[in-house]
Design brief:
Layout (H helix, E strand, L loop, with lengths): L9 E2 L9 E10 L11 E2 L2 E15 L2 E5 L3 E5 L5 E16 L6 H10 L5 E2 L2 H19 L6 H27 L4 H16 L6 H7 L4 H12 L3 H19 L4 H7 L5 H12 L3 H7 L3
Parallel strand pairs: 1-3
Antiparallel strand pairs: 2-7, 4-5, 4-6, 4-7, 6-8
Helix pairs in contact: 1-3, 2-3, 4-6, 5-6, 7-9, 7-10
């Protein structure tokens, strides 16, 4: 068995492409390349998969997903994923690093994390597919004097178009009640501070509301308490590190903000039903 790295593998964009942006359209069937996308990894950019035809099987943060045709998914740079198999799949794929994204797009994508698979209507699929095809053409025109700017701006337009579809879907099912707005703000704050802030009270203070009111908002919206969400975010990151790195459990506990190894272990058991060591051993195969 291949020895695991101290760190989760990160795929970088291949040489010969514009620094920080890659976009292509291709047909796939069968198993992916195990040394590249078939092994669990992170990308050093924001990944989009536009499923135009067929099916793609993928695992994202320990959950298996089936991407059917006429749909899209956004995967952020923190999410660990690997492709499992393709079934007569025609997909357009693009990766763009954070420094190449407009600030507005960075903020939009942060609000979408984690994003689910989004089914697209035929006309919407056609528009996004056509825009992606145009971006691919731009990526091949390296002789252009303003090649970098043309590719960067066109791909940002594509990202904005996709983000718009996610926002439209959210508005169709969400009337933006105050409870939901507060819950969204809490989740965004949690994503940025989960390794340092573990107290519901502190999250409530950052939102200028009381702890009971924050808990009421989050529980009404999601069905779970603030403490539950904090615990689950910690457990997810612990799983990522246990499965995809060779760091010791003590090192992982410290990285997640726990100097008390025993407390971290009890938290992990509460969230998964097994100890960190058992989880790592179970997944070694």
């Amino acid at each position: 068995m291949q020895k695991k790295s101290k760190y989760i593998p990160v795929n970088t964009l291949p040489s010969g492409t514009r620094e920080g942006i890659i976009i292509f359209r291709n047909f796939f069937n069968g198993l992916p390349n195990p040394k590249e996308v078939g092994r669990p990894h992170r990308d050093n950019g924001h990944l989009f998969i536009l499923q135009e035809k067929g099916t793609t099987h993928i695992e994202i943060d320990f959950e298996k997903h089936c991407i059917e045709e006429s749909s899209i998914i956004y995967i952020n740079p923190d999410q660990i994923h690997h492709l499992i198999a393709f079934e007569n799949a025609t997909i357009s794929t693009w990766i763009i690093t954070s420094e190449n994204l407009q600030q507005e797009n960075l903020e939009l994508l942060a609000a979408l994390t984690p994003a689910s698979i989004l089914p697209l209507k035929a006309e919407t699929l056609a528009i996004i597919s056509t825009t992606a095809a145009l971006c691919i053409q731009f990526s091949e025109r390296k002789h252009e004097k303003l090649f970098n700017s043309i590719l960067k701006e066109s791909c940002n337009t594509l990202v904005t178009l996709v983000a718009s579809q996610y926002l439209s879907e959210a508005k169709a099912t969400d009337h933006h009640s105050r409870f939901k707005v507060i819950t969204k703000s809490f989740k965004s704050s949690l994503e940025h501070h989960f390794t340092k802030i573990k107290s519901p009270k502190v999250y409530a203070q950052t939102l200028n509301i009381s702890t009971p009111y924050l808990n009421e908002c989050v529980k009404t919206t999601t069905g779970h308490s603030v403490s539950y969400h904090i615990q689950q975010r910690i457990v997810l990151e612990a799983k990522r590190l246990l499965y995809h790195s060779s760091k010791s459990i003590k090192e992982i506990a410290g990285e997640l903000g726990y100097n008390d190894y025993s407390y971290f272990t009890r938290l992990f058991v509460k969230g998964t039903g097994m100890t960190p060591l058992t989880f790592r051993t179970k997944n070694l195969g």
